[in-house]
Structure to design on (429 residues):
């Protein structure tokens, strides 16, 4: 079972990973800073690889969850491909040396420029485009034809999984902007010859994020399988792959995330060789959070304590621009001291807030934290490896934090802290 402290543990020098303490790192690079554990990324990847061993598969890490080049390279070296949602992410994947045949391109709004880029990437082009609308398919077909190429495509199916019975953050409902329904997809297949630049190869789904029950995933897989069988009857050649998306949840606090092994078993049940005799499907998945989420923490220093009767404020040097999940969707992150506190420590109800001029600039609310915590003390905001730095901005003209990777017992800076000059680059008076 995953936990926010799987890869960061308390030792003699306080909280750390691989023999390096977060205090040492904060001394060296300053705060706020993101710190990642290489093992934290690799362990879930290896579990997925083990779960899918023996099946024709490709694990495409969702780059948007953590797009640092060193992280992409680490995962690619360990066998992962990449799932992209923009031309900028393609540029990152290329800079990290990711093999073109291991790249899929998702997202509802790909521009013709981005399409051309991906079609010509590395000569052969990327593995596949996950296409989300008829209009996008027509544009991609034109762009490919103009380049004298064929675009390998999976159509993104919106399985309309009932959110009422499965309360989770959803992208797989009819009312969401993502994907196409069954009828639309069957219509495309029936008239596929009108898209001469398209090589229709698969179906993709992605029903949401931080999914904590396998039931909605099972529902979606079942519907996708039924659709693939229908499509095979319409198309001159059977489809060759399913992209089952990402979305597997992690433990931020005490919630129970489904075990990776069970998730893989579910994929095998619905898409494995026994499920489709004679017409084997390659199984792609696009995990983001389940690989990167608990691999990182955000280290921050206490600037001030503001004492109030019922609840104090700890004002820290990290803010919503560095980690937006709490402000954006009430994301919960555990906040811990770098030194283990004893059971006798007096604690007080506390809100941990940043310096940004917004009331929503709260990193954690209503936490019992030591009353002794004060100016200069360090804290770690846990489970910050996914949608942390990748969603960071510079609001209030705050330079984005440094990123540090701990690997083989050593810490190295994988992104320098931004400077004030970085903040104004490209601006003209
Ligand atoms: C965001 C996204 C993912 C990754 O989702 P996680 O919840 O981080 O696993 C995968 N596929 C698509 C299409 C996405 O938009």
């Amino acid at each position: 079972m995953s936990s926010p402290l799987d890869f960061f543990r308390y030792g003699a020098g306080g909280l750390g990973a691989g023999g390096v303490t977060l205090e040492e790192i904060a001394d060296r690079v300053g705060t706020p800073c993101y710190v990642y554990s290489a093992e934290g990324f690799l362990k879930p990847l290896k579990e997925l690889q083990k779960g899918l061993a023996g099946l024709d598969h490709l694990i495409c890490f969702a780059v948007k969850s953590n797009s640092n080049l060193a992280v992409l390279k680490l995962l690619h070296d360990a066998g992962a491909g990449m799932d992209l949602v923009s031309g900028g992410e393609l540029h990152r994947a290329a800079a990290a040396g990711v093999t073109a045949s291991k790249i899929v391109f998702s997202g509802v709004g790909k521009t013709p420029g981005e399409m051309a880029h991906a079609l010509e990437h590395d000569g052969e082009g990327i593995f596949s485009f996950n296409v989300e609308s008829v209009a996008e398919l027509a544009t991609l077909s034109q762009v490919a034809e103009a380049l004298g190429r064929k675009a390998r495509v999976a159509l993104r199916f919106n399985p309309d999984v009932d959110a009422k019975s499965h309360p989770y953050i959803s992208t797989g409902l009819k009312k969401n902007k993502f994907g196409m329904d069954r009828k639309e997809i069957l219509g495309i297949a029936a008239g596929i010859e009108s898209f001469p630049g398209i090589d229709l190869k698969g179906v993709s789904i992605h029903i949401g994020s931080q999914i904590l029950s396998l039931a909605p995933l099972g529902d979606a897989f079942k519907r996708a399988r039924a659709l693939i069988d229908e499509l095979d009857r319409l198309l001159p050649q059977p489809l060759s792959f399913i992209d089952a998306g990402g979305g597997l949840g992690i433990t931020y606090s005490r919630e129970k995330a489904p075990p990776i092994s069970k998730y893989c078993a579910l994929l095998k049940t619905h898409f494995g060789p026994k499920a489709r005799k004679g017409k084997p499907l390659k199984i792609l998945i696009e995990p983001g959070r389940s690989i990167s989420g608990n691999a990182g923490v955000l280290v921050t220093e206490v600037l001030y304590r503001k004492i109030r009767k019922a609840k104090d404020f700890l004002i820290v040097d990290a803010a919503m621009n560095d980690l937006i999940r709490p402000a954006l969707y009430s994301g919960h992150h555990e906040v811990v001291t770098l030194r283990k506190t004893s059971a006798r420590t007096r604690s007080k109800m506390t809100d941990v807030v940043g310096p940004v001029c917004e009331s929503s600039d709260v990193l954690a609310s209503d936490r019992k934290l030591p009353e002794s915590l004060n100016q200069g003390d360090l804290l770690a905001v846990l489970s910050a490896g996914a949608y942390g730095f990748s969603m960071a901005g510079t609001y209030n003209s705050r330079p984005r934090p440094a990123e540090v990777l701990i690997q083989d017992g050593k810490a190295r800076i994988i992104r320098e802290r931004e400077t004030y000059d970085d903040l104004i680059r490209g601006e003209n008076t």
Observations:
- The chain is about 30% helix and 25% strand.
- The mean pLDDT is 95.
